[in-house]
Design brief:
The structure is a homodimer.
Chain A: H1 2-14, H2 30-39, H3 45-55, H4 63-83, H5 87-96, E1 105-106, E2 113-114, H6 116-128, E3 134-136, H7 144-158, H8 162-183, H9 186-190, H10 194-197, H11 199-210, H12 215-226, H13 240-260, H14 276-280, H15 287-290, E4 302-304, H16 314-327, E5 334-341, H17 343-349, H18 357-360, H19 364-374, H20 390-396, E6 399-403, E7 412-418, E8 423-428, H21 441-452, H22 458-469, H23 478-483
Parallel strand pairs in A: 5-6
Antiparallel strand pairs in A: 1-2, 3-4, 5-7, 7-8
């Protein structure tokens, strides 16, 4: 990493222009090109990736990636329905719907249909507004939001088959996660919300695949995406957090549409001296974009939140709920709750006294108190009313948390001291919902139904769930979108 | 500057959260608040700026700012007309027009009318595509593009008066230039195209003013702008460069529309630890945003290009044309051309053998050869045909350039060696079009007419020019937009 940093400085100082050469890369020599490019660093990451995206065929995608992609899409649709009636969604529609063009894209869980660019924005917002969506743990990207929002809108317009939709989805997830890996954690620590900044590439790649872009157009699509990359972590706790995957989906789709009409961009948007990776991050690892394309699949590492708040809090919630259920705890029994966590937990969720449902998601103190008292941490625990419940507030103020570098991001230590002096300890190594302890199909369905019923009648919810599981076999993926509309 | 850098590191390391407090700031105590905030650093820059924007009244704007604003708007409309028929514009419209909503915004110089968000995008693209627009030299921001594009579209919809339009324009320019000043040059050197990244704030502020946002909504508008801030310098030489002011205009307008419906954002988007300034720049000077609001006006420093390429090349072009005209030079007379320039010139325009009109803008070698042979450097010198002209190519290959730290960005040294051994030297301290040597009204009109005739008949061009000079007195600024449509 230090090497990358010094390399950046060296290149800047010496004024060497990078990545704008135009050698063609065929699929057959992609690997050789990778090796060569790495030797004469940095590689033509943009071209290598674009070539792979264009050449990829559905039969090349292994079973495990397809399996996890269906689960990702299923979970994403459920989250869209869960967020459909949120105030954030209402306000975005109130502001923008009157500027929409042809109503070709359904807003899932609502009656509105919008043009595909606004449709992508809205479904991206709804899917993330409850902080209940999916997570690629190696980057903390929420992969489905930007990608599925873009291509369900586009797919509904085009009448795309379920197979093509799945293929584009998997390539989009691969693109955003690999670009995320290339700059994580430096990029994230700088202040960027990586779901927005990397997500726009995923949306562009997936939409570009559906539009049948050629290699040069795909390079341009990635470039137009790069030059729209945005999203600040400062927005956590406000309506703008959910705006990020929506905007990434909308702008990625826009990038692919522009590229399809030969709107030009840089040939080296990722790796050039003033391209995305050097400009948006202090460290970069190009091999994450170019290595093992088609041989490892990031979508296989996707996970689904059992709790509707930031993934970093999940080991704590899991531990709290385990102790609660095993010992039949109630608030009056408890003298004190002590948490020992990775420093990131307090950095992201260190609010002591949250006043709104949104703020509550950024308070590990509130979250652990609610988990102990309620035994769950779903959307109902993150309303403005819930956060003011006196019993929860009292317990919240008796929670203390210590940051410990020795504790990994996956694990947490919970210690509950009872009024009678008993101490209950729990070490959670991997939270429920992690790669190591994935949600079962039944748990995913319960989560889906619980959210979806806020937007649709139960019979319709069941129909949508069934369509989602069958997505690969659909002749027109628009069926899912239309089935998920409110009437 | 080094202080800022260490401060950033200190704040990051100590995990101190900045800028999210919520003290109200009334106009009366804004100045006191500035002083206090600077003492306990960093200040509430976002709130102080938003408060000023909301409270500002037209009568507070001095004559000199109004004078230069009219010239800025006049020049911007001319540039929009000049870029209206460019391939870049054609392709953007081919890709996006079919997704447009209600046709409420005219695309200047064309027959299309689009919804206001797409209208802002397109007029932003056309105004910048010839690299012929305005420049705020302290930041290299092209101020009118993002701001005027957003509010002419909105103003056409609302039937905004010329006075309100001018007021919003001046506030928008103030906002983008001050935010630019707060992070320039570090932000620019990192790789960001500041017209895009800072422009989005200007568009949001101006559109927010026209929408009558209150202080909290204006804070949110700036926040929603911050979290969309984008644009990479790597895109120079491609169609994406012109996309930046367009996208900034569109996204800034979107930010103001969302804020007008209470779509929430951070209260400290500029100054917070993970806000715009720390995330997008390695150095920051908050006082540039908060000091002397209402007492100095950045629009007064706006300048207009006499040549349709990057401002850094203008001293060279000026010197070349002066020597050419004074000595009646032609290509055959010349043995060699030697340039001595600020290092930025070669960094930005160091291409030796440009192959396209776009690339030619980034070649000081081509540019100086063309200036000597043609005596001008307008849009006609930056076509694909012009760049291949044998006589120009031959002279281009006899141009050499040396970067010299001792030469400022405003000046340049040209030395032409003739075949007979004569050496002609010219030192240009400030190029024509600079603050020191502003274009006259007549020069602006010649530039306008020269561009506009590619899109509109001469009689219509004259009508639009007259309306632009009278903009302050119009009851409906939409008159300008409608008059500038092609029929």
């Amino acid at each position: 990493m230090t090497d990358s940093l010094s390399r950046r400085k060296f290149l800047k100082a010496s004024g060497i222009a990078l990545g704008s050469t135009t050698l063609p890369v065929t699929p057959l020599i992609a690997e050789a090109a990778t090796a060569k490019a790495l030797a004469s660093n940095p590689p033509e990451a943009t071209r290598i990736l674009a070539n792979w995206l264009v050449e990829s065929e559905w039969r090349d995608v292994p079973e495990q990636a397809r399996y996890e992609a269906v689960r990702s899409i299923f979970n994403w649709v459920g989250c869209c329905l869960g967020g459909a009636r949120h105030q954030t969604t209402d306000r975005a529609i109130a502001a923008l719907a009157e500027f929409s063009g042809k109503p070709e894209a359904s807003v899932l869980g609502r009656t509105e249909r919008l043009d595909i660019l606004h449709g992508a924005l809205l479904n991206g917002i709804t899917s993330h507004v409850l902080d209940y969506d999916d997570t690629h743990l190696d980057t903390i990207i929420h992969p489905a939001g930007p990608v599925a929002s873009a291509i369900l809108a586009l797919g509904e317009r085009l009448g795309t088959s379920g197979e093509d939709f799945m293929h584009a989805f998997i390539l989009g997830v691969e693109t955003e996660c690999r670009i995320g890996l290339a700059v994580y954690p430096s990029h994230y620590e700088r202040g960027f919300h990586i779901t927005g900044t990397a997500g726009v590439f995923g949306a562009a790649a997936a939409a570009g695949k559906l539009l049948g872009l050629n290699e040069q157009q795909m390079i341009w699509a990635l470039g137009i995406a790069a030059t729209q990359s945005a999203g600040l972590k400062e927005m956590f706790g406000t309506m703008c957090k959910a705006f990020h995957p929506g905007s990434a989906g909308q702008n990625g789709l826009k990038a692919a549409l522009l590229a399809s009409k030969d709107y030009t961009s840089s040939n080296g948007a990722l790796e050039a001296q003033e391209g995305f990776m050097f400009t948006y991050s202090d460290e970069q690892d190009f091999t994450q974009v170019t290595d093992e394309l088609g041989r490892r699949w990031e979508v296989e590492k996707n996970t689904y939140k059992p709790f509707s708040c930031g993934i970093v809090t999940h080991p704590i919630i899991d531990g709290c709920i385990q102790l609660r259920n095993e010992h039949g705890l109630s608030a009056e029994d408890i003298e004190k709750v002590s948490l020992r966590v990775n420093p990131l937990v307090l950095k992201l969720t260190g609010k002591k006294t949250p006043q709104t449902g949104l703020e509550a998601k950024f308070s590990i103190f509130y979250i652990s108190a609610a988990a102990i008292i309620k035994g769950v941490a779903g959307p109902n625990q993150f309303t403005d009313e819930a956060v003011r419940e006196p019993q929860v507030v009292m317990l919240r103020d008796r929670v203390e948390a210590v940051a410990d570098e020795a504790v990994s991001e996956e694990e947490a230590f919970v210690s509950i001291v009872l009024r009678d002096g008993t101490v209950l300890d729990r070490h959670v190594e991997h939270a429920i919902g992690s790669v190591q302890r994935p949600l079962t199909k039944e748990q995913l369905e319960l989560k889906f139904a619980d959210q979806a019923q806020s937007a649709l009648p139960l019979s319709q919810v069941e129909e949508v769930m069934a369509l989602c599981w069958q997505v690969e076999g659909l002749t027109d993926v628009g069926e899912v979108a239309r089935a998920a509309r409110a009437v």
